[in-house]
Amino acid sequence: MADLLNVKDLCVSVEEKGILHGINLSVKRGETHVLMGPNGAGKSTLGNAIMGNPRYTVESGKILFEGEDITEEAVDKRARRGIYLSFQNPLEVPGVTLGNFIRSAMEQRSGKRIRLWDFKKEMKKALELLHMDPSYAERDLNVGFSGGEKKKAEILQLLMLKPALAILDETDSGLDVDAVRTVSEGVEEYQKSMDGALIIITHATRILESLKVDRTHIIVNGRMEDEGDASLVDRINQEGFERYMTPVSKV
Amino acid sequence: MSEERNITVNKLPSPTFRWLGMNSALLPVPEKLKEGKPVLKDTEELSASETDYTLMRNIAGGMGEELDRMAEESGIPVREFHIGAGISKKDALYISLHYGEGEQALNLFSIRAEEGSELTIFMDFSSEKAGYAGVQTKLSIEKGARVRLIQVQRLGEDFCFFHDIGAKTGEGAEFDEREILLSGRQSFHGIRTDLSGRESRFESAIGYLLKKEERLDINLIANHIGEKTESRIDSDGVLRDHAFKLFRGTIDLRKGAKGAVGNEMETVLLMNDTVVNQTVPVILCDEEDVEGNHGASIGRLDEDMLFYMQSRGMEKEAVYEMMADAKIDAVINGISDEKLREQVKSYRRREDEEAV
Amino acid sequence: MARERTEVNDIDRSIYDFRYEEKDSDFYKIKEGLDREIVEEISEKKKDPAWMRDFRLRSLEIYNEKSIPTWGPPIDGLDMKNIVTYVKPKTKMTADWDEVPKDIKETFDKLGIPQAERKSLAGVGAQYDSELVYHNLQEEAASKGVVYTDLESALHGPYAKMIEEHFMHLVPPTDHKFAALHGAVWSGGSFVYVPKGVSVEIPLQSYFRLNAPGAGQFEHTLIIVDEGAYLHFIEGCSAPKYNIANLHAGCVELFVGKNAHLRYSTIENWSKNMYNLNTKRAIVAEGGTMEWVSGSFGSHVSYLYPMTILNGRGAKSEFTGVTFAGHGQNLDTGAKMVHNAEDTSSYINTRSISKDGGVSTYRSSVVIGRNAKNAKSAVSCQSLMLDSDSRSDTIPAMDVRTQQADVGHEARIGRISDDAVFYLMSRGLSEEDARAMIVSGFADTVSKELPLEYAVEMNNLIRLEMVGAIG
Fold it and tell me: Could B330 and A51 be called an inter-chain contact, meaning their C-beta atoms sit closer than 8 Å?
């Protein structure tokens, strides 16, 4: 099967400082990949580069999506191709309700008007799945949301927009046990019923407990240092990143 | 149009460099102005009367003395609404003025809210294509009283309009002022609140959408006179095409206003390279034990915000459109009276939603 | 730490008020007031070229036509009829410190000028009343082709044409009444030229001392930093206190070439009866950088808003300023930024302190023109009120005419927090020390931008101003 996402020898810098140094990564449709690494290793940078954040400059290498080179493509075009990034700190947008925002984004993706009735029905279902009160749809996007509510609102958008690839950047951080469970149920729904591919950037493993993980990648100092199956997650949990950080393993 | 003269209005309380041309504005005044015919609703619990200009003179407005003189000399009667002590009026006093083609109108309103009363006033200004209209509203808000004034401006593309507001607050009184400015060729808005009574509050939220050749000139003044007075000014708008906007916002923390706090925030989203946005946010401070803050953000959308919204698949233009709407909606959403909020929203609702 | 501070406290402000009892015969003084005859006499004394003489007379006409500002602090205490526009010490300008007359030398010695030169400067100019009395450029800088001289000799030297092409082109006499006055009676000041690609590693300094009572100082500073060059120029000003008002209406014109970098630092400590109506302006070409560091402590009334015109793509300007207004002072200071080209950026960061009845006003303008695509501007101004007799106003203006701009503005006015004072006092500081420390910290953003000796001087000034701040 052809790759959904293909990252080739990607080097990325932020404000002229090199962060990623030749990253390779392939994700097939429906696969779940976990990206782990110590703070500042470049995990979020990779997510932002795939999404096309203009603050992150691709110095060399390529990003292919469904076989097409999207390295230079604008962020909204990538989104319409089916890439989704959940933000660590989603922005507050006063005056735009969560519901209107999602509906506008859906209409922009499909280029078609969506009937209010159909939209509301689908929205209600997603809100229920995430144990969110229906009134959230009427609240201004992320305004006054708690940390957990913001993360849930990100997953809500994921379920409504149904991308082919979702990058979850620390979606589980700062959440209590119940909230992690809810978020992870939402992700599971995406994985199963939409055959969605996932790149999960995480420090913790709670979010992974109920998910089927296909590959695990370890990123240290902007380089892929290791790769393995789901069991690598457990090893990291026990041993940490020490072994990747010794001077011997590098240079 | 008949003969016109110009008067100087919207003077910045503390003028600055002359070459900037921001110190004041020239308001055209037609030779003859007639009283506009307002539609009034929900006047029960209020006593309405006709008075002369005496009371109006005691409260200064944001547009200034020359306007007062013009209003007084016009001979147009002052319509006074008076709410008695302790009365909380449930439904908003509704004042609607629809100006006909070529009309040249002036209306003078005096609002007196006695101790502990509560009143919401909704002013709806609309018009045919061209004409001229002015409104002056002076409010005396006594001890513990609370007045909310909401105005919506939707005027014709060749219409010139001004609204001068002056308010004085007693101890613990509150004045909440909200403006939703949607259209009109040339508008002048002056708002001045003298926070005389201790612990009185003034809140102002202005949302505007200017397009084509529209011009908006605002002079907003919060005078902190009493102790522990508070003001909060939020101005949020969108400029496109050849629109011009000048916002003067002054927080004046006078000597003796111990414990006073004034906050002012302005954001302006610019949609074209042909707009002109001028801003003078002033803080005057003559007292140690006070706090004054001001922030402004002018220009394009914040990069992070744009990226966030684009990452959900929206085109840049669509994000800008959405944010432009959002600015006005945020001011509308702040209207606490649900019925009014829905009414104002209905002016802007998308057609397809109404079809569902 | 506390001990060190006590020593600092002992610094005597009287060094600035120090003055010799001079006999009138030691000086050549022009008669008071301002008319054509006086301007012609100055022009003659200075052996002006013909164009300069005409320029002065034209400026005088403009001066007579212009009205005084309708905004800003009152200046009615200033009567031009009583101001002596030109005072010349009976000495020649010299590059040898020993040749400077004894009394003048001692004044500057007290202010630390020659020591500073030996320690950390590439060149020094010292102006006493209307004329430079000492000018020296160290050999290393001179060998790179750097020119640092008094403006009068430059007018007759090889750079005459360059001066004619730049003099008051950036600040034309039509700009405002006091620019016109300057154009008519200017005297003294410096000319600096830094050739292409030359980096002057250590700063140049000029020091202005106005000594004669009732006199005006109208020095003109013209600096041209050519393509890719770097210069740090420091300006210091002081005057003793007299009973008659003095006037300072200097003019600074700075030309920053392509990819060049100029840093201009000022510590102004004029006496507290001085009217300081100074005009400073810089124009920056493509990729160039202009940095202003400005400390305003002295004078009775100040109007001071250094302007930067960002004229080339990617040009940048930063303004960092602190103003301390004490008893009897009305200091109206700030900055002006004009964005005329793409990718230009400006930053204004100021702190104002008002104490003991002093009035400080932050006034600024940021103008982003239609062609200044991708311009960025950020303003942050903070004011501190130390008591209720004082006053602090903030009057910024912004004019934005392109959609592709990011303009941010932040202003804050407040007082020293009681909690902060309590915290420091709980660690054993006296209230006076605690408050002084907080004020120094507040002004730190500027003092850390200054060369060490000046940072120390500025902190001393703050400390001196703070003594007795608690009643």
Answer: no
Q: What is the pLDDT of residues C212-271, one digit of tens each?
A: 777 778 999 999 999 999 999 988 877 666 667 788 899 999 999 999 999 999 888 888
Tokens of B260: 């006073």
Least Cα separation, residue B188 to chain C (angstroms): 18
Q: Tell me how close the Cα of B232 comes to any Cα of chain A, in angstroms.
A: 17
- Is the CB of B273 less than 8 angstroms away from the CB of C373? yes
Res B102 pLDDT > 90? yes
Query: The pTM is what?
Result: 0.85
Q: Can you tell me the ipTM of this complex? A: 0.91
CA-based R_g, chain C, Å: 22
Whether A113 has its CB under 8 Å from any CB of chain B: the answer is: yes
Residues of B within 8 A of A96 (CB-CB) are 322-323, 325-326, 329
Nearest CA in chain C to B269: C403
φ, ψ at A151 (rounded to 5°) = -65, -40
Query: Three-state SS across chain C?
Result: CHHHHHHHHCCCCHHHHCCCCCCHHHEEECCCCCCHHHHHHHHHHCCCCHHHHHHHHHHHHHHHHCCCCCCCCCCCCCCHHHCECCEEECCCCECCHHHCCHHHHHHHHHHCHHHHHHHHCCEEEEEECCEEEEEEECHHHHHCCCEEEEHHHHHHCCCHHHHHHHCCCCCCCCCCHHHHHHHHHCCCCEEEEECCCCECCCCEEEEEECCCCCEEECCEEEEEECCCCEEEEEEEEECCCCCCCEEECCEEEEEECCCCEEEEEEEEECCCCEEEECEEEEEECCCCEEEEEEEECCCCEEEECCEEEECCCCCEEEEEEEEEECCCCEEEEEEEEEECCCCCEEEEEEEEEECCCCEEEEEEEEEECCCCCCEEEEEEEEEEECCCCCEEEEEEEEEECCCCEEEEEEEEEEECCHHHHHHHHHCCCCHHHHHHHHHHHHHHHHHCCCCHHHHHHHHHHHHHHHCCCCC
Domain ranges of chain B: 4-355
What A210-217 contacts at long range (C-beta under 8 Å, 24+ apart), as own/partner pairs, is A210/A184, A210/A185, A211/A32, A211/A184, A211/A187, A212/A32, A213/A32, A213/A33, A213/A34, A214/A31, A214/A32, A214/A33, A215/A31, A215/A32, A215/A33, A215/A34, A216/A33, A216/A34, A216/A36, A217/A25, A217/A33, A217/A34, A217/A35, A217/A36
Query: Are residues B327 and A95, on separate chains, in Cβ contact within 8 Å?
Result: yes
Give Cβ neighbours of residue A10 (< 8 Å, ≥ 6 apart): A20, A22, A23, A24, A46, A49, A58, A60, A61, A62, A63
Domain boundaries, chain C: 19-431
Find the helix or strand (DSSP H, E) in which B288 lies.
none
Q: Inter-chain contact C409–B23, Cβ cutoff 8 Å?
A: no
Does the distance separating the beta carbons of B313 and A101 come in below 8 Å? no
Contact: C401, B275; criterion CB under 8 Å: yes
Rounded-to-integer distance, Cα A144 and Cα A56, Å: 29
Cβ contact C222:C166 at 8 Å = yes
d(CA B79, CA B106) in angstroms, rounded, equals: 12
**Nearest-CA neighbor of B133 among B106, B115, B110?**
B106
What are the distances in angstroms from CA B4 to CA B32, B33, B87, B146, B341? 9, 11, 44, 39, 38
Q: Span A105-134, mean pLDDT?
A: 90
Q: Which chains contact B through at least 3 pairs of Cβ atoms less than 8 Å apart?
A: A, C
Which of B268, B272, B291 shows the shortest C-beta gap to C414? B291
> For domain A3-90+162-249, which architecture applies?
3-Layer(aba) Sandwich (3.40)
The mean per-residue pLDDT over the stretch A83-110 comes to: 87
Return the residue matching tokens 């930053």. Answer: C347
